[in-house]
Amino acid sequence: MQENSSKQSFGHAWRDRLQALKNVPPGLRIVWEAGPRVTIAGLALQILSALVPIGIAAVSAAIIGEVAAVVNAHQPLAAKFWWLVAAEFGLALAGSVLSRTIDYCESVLADKFIRHVSIKVMRHASRLDLETYEDPDFYDKLERARVQATDRVSMISSAGRALQQFVTALTFSVTICLFSPWILLLLIIGVLPAFVGESHFAFLGYSLRFRQTPVRRASRPCTSNPRRCFGSG
Question: In this prediction, what percent of the chain has a pLDDT beyond 70?
Answer without folding.
Answer: 73
